Amino acid sequence: MTYLSPLGYLLGIEGAALLRGFREGSADRAFVEARIAEIRALLDTPALAHAEGVTASEGTISTADVYRSWAPHYDAPGNQMIDIEQPVVRRILDGLPVGTALDAACGTGRHTAYLHELGHHVIGIDASQGMLAQARKRLPDVDFHEADLHRLPVPDNTVDTIVCALALTHVPDLAPVLAEFARVLRPGGHLVVSDAHLLVSYLRPTLPRRPGPDGHPSLLAEYHRPLSGYLAAALPLGFQVRHCEEPRRPRHDLAPDTAPDPLPTCVSWDLLHWCPEASAAALDDSPIAVIWHFQLEGTAKN
After folding, report:
1. To the nearest whole number, what is the mean pLDDT of the chain?
2. Where are the transmembrane segments (predicted)?
3. CA 197 to CA 226: how far, in whole Å?
4. pTM of model > 0.90
């Protein structure tokens, strides 16, 4: 069980801003004193001091449940993770030879569509019926399959490129999934993976969702990893690193004195408006995603 407190979250952001400032040498006396004063003000704010937090249970809502609700608006403008991740992935794909491509955990088909435009024969797989429905509307001529990453409906050694975007956060163990990728790739084939960065899990809360079987709000179980976690799973399978990039969060435009009214009823990203300077210091220019380009050892086909 996790107790999500609005005041606790804001104090955590203030602390992260101070620690980052100390580490990077940007915390001058005025900044430190401003943070201390703001912490005192937050503690003395009645709306925060008396705000009830939320006790949430992890793992009582499934990935399928969450993506079913996300599917109709997943590609809507403003998804910062996609806005930052997508150009990097596409830049890598632009440099790869055209062949047979697998979009693993294709979602609504955004990378599927780009691979198709580049001339690949594309196969899309996803475990979410709702997301696949959106993908099929977008690309009626592409073969889409409902399947799990652990059991790809693809023969051995038949794929030249695999893209797996923003999905491995939902996988508790990388090794069997990467082993499936290695199975279906031809020697010399390429694997492009994007995932939420480990730091995201510390600086932006996982939002509670509808109550689960125990009556408490639910937290989706997520698995955020250090960079070494990807390497430990990939290298023994014969994957070689061709590129790794950690795109960063741009500066946001929270202005002072923009605290929302009323206070959000639970931990919410809207809380950042209560301490815009600390939020900027803690979050701005921090890694938001990690993108890997691996190549399977062996000789690629001509």
Report:
1. 88
2. none
3. 8
4. no
Q: Give the pLDDT confidence score for residue 114 in this predicted structure.
A: 97
Cis omega (within 30 of 0) for bond into 211 = no
Q: What's the length of the chain?
A: 302
Q: H-helix or E-strand containing 294?
A: strand 289-296
**Is 58 in contact with 2 (CB distance < 8 Å)?**
yes
Amino acid identity of residue 138, one-letter, is R
E strands present in 235-286: 239-245
| Contact assessment for residue 113 and residue 138, using Cβ atoms and an 8 Å cutoff | yes
pLDDT at 252: 61
Tens digits of residue pLDDT in 210-232:
666 667 777 778 899 999 999 99
Each residue's pLDDT tens digit, 126-174: 999 999 999 999 999 999 999 999 999 999 999 999 999 999 999 999 9
CATH number, span 75-203+223-250+287-302? 3.40.50.150
- In angstroms, the Cα distances linking 277 to 33, 159, 258, 270, 285 are 13, 48, 11, 14, 14
Alpha helices by DSSP H, the chain: 6-24, 29-44, 46-49, 63-70, 80-94, 110-117, 129-138, 174-184, 198-203, 227-234, 276-283
